[in-house]
Please model this.
Amino acid sequence: MAVLFKISVALGFFVGLMMLGLASSAKFDELFQPGWAMDHFIYEGELLKLKLDNYSGAGFASKSKYLFGKVTMQIKLVEGDSAGTVTAYYMSSDGPNHNEFDFEFLGNTTGEPYLIQTNVYVNGVGNREQRMNLWFDPTKDFHSYSILWNQRQVVFLVDETPIRVHTNMEHKGIPFPKDQAMGVYSSIWNADDWATQGGLVKTDWSHAPFIASYKGFEIDACECPASVAADENAKKCSSSGQKKFWWDEPTMSELSLHQSHQLVWVRARHLVYDYCIDTARFPVMPVECEHHRH
Model:
């Protein structure tokens, strides 16, 4: 891994400290490769478009896997009638007991808002869905979607505003995803059996092809070679002695006061579904919901 000293300067999560990290890139082919349906990829300079029609969707994957850090993509979602379509952007490890962090953008009929569904899998167990609409139209311009991951928390961000936090509560006996390296993936596909109004609204193929557009691919994370054992990667990607990673800094262990206020605002105004309060699915509240502050 090419490890660089860099100054990471940004509002909110990032402070001006000399920290170890992986150099980011804005070029797709330096970090990613097509995963399937290469004939449904459209390259326009730095812009990548994925196409969905009634023959196929398309998807891509990162060339490497990572343990802790931050990944970001700028995405412009399918315009017009996108009912039945899903554009997914997620991190995932391999195997039946995998860990996974999901953004799923659920299409809708023209004029209705897109919904973002987030989910967290730990040791192969998901069913932690939250859905919200957005404070902007995600089909009109590019917006950044990020996942920040360290040993204390997983944070989903939209334009640097946190929309969900999954906190490490191992002290409560709740497993936390911190020992499996993850790849970064995105795809567009037809999910009209569930994506729009529970599957009531089907994909209208007369509007195909459906296009999701991408740019600004950034990964600032610890790269984990496949040849290295999981426990060795965990050591390599954690701060110790003189080796300091920005994601292990105390300021990264929880949201700032401003970010906490942002999260409260987002959830109050835009959250439309939270598994934690779905008593039909979960007559007994999931244990992590009892302890989450947000």
